Every structure is written in structure tokens, then in C-alpha cells.
């Protein structure tokens, strides 16, 4: 079976989006499928028209799209659809597997109808909510409502729908889509990439001033919804109970300047370290310095509905996890079993949870073992990839039974209700 993944962007760019794509495709290849990816015009990184990265073949959409908002996006959809059809003439995929945003889904629907092959649409987040979360959109605006409407059009037209978590699935069901049409494929990690964690590097610890005291850490992008300002505000309270505690923030993003200014003005300024962005290959060296990984996401529609990847990676690394009790975290972390949860948007609650965890080391090994076991059981891509196989086989079986091979797909075979 051949599967073409339709993507907004991909490796060699590094993001949670591209790492999930890599994990899915790598696991599918290992299972015996023939798999490629194609990116739209927003990939935005110069390179050859066909590019092999980490053993994966990616095709790039040629050309560009210009014009006023609205027209530009429709031209993007048209360019990507044309590129899918052109590639299909050569490679002949059996299934198009499009991933959010809706522009990728619309292009896949257009191409799938022309080619007569089924389309799977996977939602990783509602992009109108993601825009609100990263400060580029406003809830209820015209753009917000338009993006949501486009999502509904793709969900209604796709032959099957996949979401990464129960929050997103539940929201679609509340909109009127039948539960049986929506498959869950949760965030996961490639456990083959996680062996025994490296020992802390004394030279790096000394360079950062982290030789003594427990270290709370965060590795990722500095968006407002991540709640890092809450974590910085919690540090003076944490130091009242654990004077030697330190905070290590690795990464960067739109909030970096504000967070650095907040840290400089904090009574705990001397205990807070920023590294800036580090090469992906160096991340494990920083993980090794951290005792507890903190994820203080703020309560919002985005964080209530969407599960992040980082806590799973931390569990796979054998790290302790402390996270705010938003919906996305509650799907991943069982309080007292695989990590600890605390009230969101509350520095005092954050500080208390961290202090309780850091003061009582007797349960650390059990939490770590349960965290890694949880990832192995429910979030290992080598296992989870079978969920897609079942969806593909069902769609191809339905198509063949209805005599649709070689003809146009039933574009609305999976509409609402």
C-alpha cells in the first residue's frame, strides 16, 4: 500500500509538527507501507523539488501564491492540489493522508476527487485556536470563523477523520459529526530514539551555574499559552521552601524578551537561567541536568482541547513531570501515578506542587518507571501506527466494494450526521 502524506511543512525544519510527521512516516515505513510526504507553499525552506531527510522522501510544491488575503490561500490550495495530482501520475498512491491546517485538507480533497482515491484528514489542533494561543489571531474574529468553517468543510468531505486527542474528538462530536467517523491517534514518541538517558555533564552544569540544588526545567517554544511567566512567578515561592532550587529554560519564541525581563526583576533572578535555542542534537544534554520538567500551560480553549508532545518525551527520557491541570495535560498525566498536576494560572499552586515533589524523593523512581511504562503502553509509535492501517484498509475495502477504483470518489461519503 502507498500512502501520501499532505503536510504544511516538514523536515529539515524542526517543530512539534515535523517531529510527529517524521514519527508517523518512519513507523509506517517500518511496518511495510510505502510512504512519502508532500508539502505546500508554506514549507518556506529552500531546497530541491524532491528531498530525502532522515530516510523519508518529501516532494515540494513548486511556484508561489500572491494576492490579497483569501485569494492567496485559495491559490495555495490550487498549487498544492496540482502538485499532488502531478505526483500521483508518477507514484500512484492508494490513500491521501492530509494533516491540518485545513488548507492541506482542501487540497487533498480536490486532488482525491480528481484521482479517485480516498482522503484521510488528521487534525492536530484547530488552527484558529492555535492562532489565538500564539497571539496572531482573536477568538470570534472573521478570520477565526472562516478558518473554523474551512475545517468543517474538510471534515465533512473527508472519507475518514483522525484526531490526536479526546479533546479534539469531543469537540467534533459536539458539532454533530458521528463518533464512528473519528479515529483517535494520540501523540506519541519513537521509543527507539530513547535509550538510557545520558549522565549529567559536569562542565555544562558548571557553565550554567547548576552544580547544586534541584533543577526545574522547560524545553520548548516560548509562547504565552505555555505559562512560563507563571513558572517564573512561582520561583520565589519555591525558593522559600527549597532555597537551592534552580530554573532552566531552554528554547525561544515570541515571549522570550518579556520572560527575560520578568526573570531579571524577580527576587529569584539569580536562580533562573536562559540558554536560548539549542541544536536539536544537544537537547538531551540539557534534559540530563533537569530533575523535574515543568509544563505550566495556561487554561484556554487551545490547551483544554490539545495534548502536547513534550510531556511524553520527558516521560520517555525518564524525567519527572509536573504539569498544569488543563484538559490536554489530563489526557497524558495521571496525578500521583505518572506525574503531578496543579491548578493552571496559579504561581502558588505551581510552586507548592514542585516543592512537594522535590522534597520527597522516595517516590521518584516509581513515578519515572510508571511514566515510561505509560508511554510504552499507549504512546509508542511502533504500536500506535496500526490505528492508521485499520482506517486505510477500511476505506480501500469500501471503495473496492462500491466499484470506485479508477473513478471519482464519493466526495461526501463521510458528511455529517
UniProtKB/TrEMBL annotation:
The answer, when asked if Transmembrane is one of the entry's keywords, is no
Domain Glycosyltransferase subfamily 4-like N-terminal, first and last residues per copy: 16-188
Per UniProt, the keywords (alphabetical) are: Transferase
- Provide the GO MF annotations for this entry: hexosyltransferase activity
Q: InterPro entries recorded for this chain?
A: Glyco_trans_4-like_N, Glycosyltransferase_grp1, PEP-CTERM/XrtA_GlycosylTrfase
Give the highest taxon in the source lineage.
Answer: Bacteria
Q: Has the keyword Protease been applied to this entry?
A: no
Question: NCBIfam families per the record?
Answer: stp3
Its name, as the record gives it, is Glycosyltransferase, exosortase A system-associated
